Every structure is written in structure tokens, then in C-alpha cells.
Amino acid sequence: MRTPSALERVLDSQGFVVLDGGLATTLESAGHILDTELWSAALLRDAPAAVGAAHEAFLVAGADCISTASYQASVPGFARRGLGTAEGEALLRRSVDLALEARRAFWAEPEHRVGRPGPLVAASVGPYGAYLADGSEYDGRYGVGRQALAAFHRRRLEVLADTPADVLALETMPSLTEVEVLVEGLAEVTHPGAWISFSCRDGAELWDGSAIEDAVRRCAPEAGIIAVGVNCTAPIHVASLVRRMRAATDIPILAYPNAGEAYDARTGKWSGPSAGAGWLERVDEWIGAGARIIGGCCRVGPDMIREIRRRMEDALGRRTDEDQERRS
Description:
Layout: H1 6-14, E1 17-18, H2 23-29, H3 43-46, H4 48-61, E2 65-67, H5 75-80, H6 85-107, E3 120-125, H7 128-132, H8 146-161, E4 167-173, H9 176-186, E5 194-198, H10 212-218, E6 225-231, H11 238-248, E7 253-256, E8 262-264, E9 269-271, H12 277-289, E10 293-294, H13 302-327
Parallel strand pairs: 1-10, 2-3, 3-4, 4-5, 5-6, 6-7, 7-10
Antiparallel strand pairs: 8-9
Helix pairs in contact: 4-6, 4-13, 8-9, 10-11, 11-12, 12-13
């Protein structure tokens, strides 16, 4: 029998998992300018303490799992900024170290350990489009084939899988081809378990037009995939997507959408209505649809994560207590 992963153990013990929100959003709100192709990954070298502080803010807000600042980090990406392979790989590892240090500092305070499981660290792996930094992560139109995608992802998966991270978070995947490449890559490395989350254009399809059910079915548990979900997707589409994923698989479902605004890659600006009460009210819909691992993505900060935790405790914590009473 397979040993449960750290994520599965927290989910089993608590009945739900609260993810963090937008790391870049939190860094920008602290005054950091993230206007390069590396986005928040630039601070791994330039302002590592700021990254750690952002992680701790999410932990204090109630996140059970924080994601590293490696979403837009890659050896080729660092090379474009003049860094060699060794330094680029060291920065990937530093992204995990900073999250682990933030967790240690948070968990060292006795009041933080009351009524909560130990927090997890997810090593973030963004799509090829995040490296291109041209907005193609939101449509999957990269103009490269499977071989190029595999070569790009291979070394980053190897490096991050060799760290003490509790789980790999393969995020914002807009195309079925990239999902298939990553599943093949995961099967070739030893890792602690991984989730894959998709970026979707509506309530049924990834940005490349693939059905969400097809993407889910490609995520073979034999490759160590322990959860699937959606992120950086408009919140209005999430409930439908969760229901479709729930019908296609028995593994846990994640949902951590953006705030609902639209991003313009040419200007680097967000537009449209910002997150608020309407966004948070949808959390109950996502829970009802079958999501048990919930957080936020772009433009979702610690205050909203705090409210997500309250809603999940109300909806799922009570249900867990009732289940335990029935079994006793």
C-alpha cells in the first residue's frame, strides 16, 4: 500500500486544506516592483527576507500550505538575467529554503500550533508560458513542441523534487500537451507527491480548448499525482470545473482562482472588478461542488485567505466532527 503524502495526511486529519494566495500580490502590496520576466522570483536573489515575510503573512492568516517563489523561476529564465546554471539551481533551492524558514519561525510560536496541523511547503512549478513572460500561460499558444517542453521542465522538476518540499505544485497549466509532458516528467523523478492545476477559459475547458475531464484523466496516480484542480481561472467558472473534475476522478480537488480581474501582458496591468464579498461567497459553492483544498491566486491576499479558512472550518470542520461522532 502506498504511504499517504503529507498533503493527504493533513487533508485526512482536518477534512480540508487552506492554500495561500498570490505571493506576487502580497509582495507588491509591500512596495516591491515586480516588472521583470522573473516576477517574484527576482526577489530570491534581491530581497529574500521579503519573500519569507510574505510566506509568514499567509501562515498567520491561516494557510495550511504555502507555495514557493519558484513559479516563474527556471534555469533558462535566470540565464536571461546573466546567471549561470549553478546559481540558477541554487536560487530554485533557495525558494524552498525561504518557505521552510518561514514555516519554522511561524511554528515556533506555541499559539500557532493550537488546533492546526503543521503547515506544508509546496514547490511551485509554473508553465512554459511563465518563462516566456508574454501572457501565453493564459492561452497555451507557445509555438514549441513536446520535446522543447520536456527539456524545459526536466531539470527544474529534478531540482525541486530533491528538496525538502512536502509537495510539488504544477500550476496554471493551459494545455493538454503540457499536462501530458509534466505527467511523463513526474514519472521519471522521485518526488513527495504532486498536484497539477489547470488554467481554464470557461467552465469546461482549458485555454487550449481541451476538456477538463481529459486533462484530469491524464493525471495518472502512478506518476505520484495526489490532487488536481484549477488556479488562475476566473472564479465564476470554478464551481462548474470542480464538478466536472469530481466526476472524472476520485483524488482530491483543488481550487485557487484569481480575483476575477483580467491581466494584460503587454502593460503588466490588471483591470476589471476586484475581489470582494462576492468572491468569498463563491467559496461555499466550491466546497459544495467537491473542492477540499482551497486558496487564491493572483490578487488574493492574506485577508481573503483568513476568510477562506473561516468558511472552510464552518463548512467542513463541522462535517468532520459529525463524521467522527458517527464512527465512535
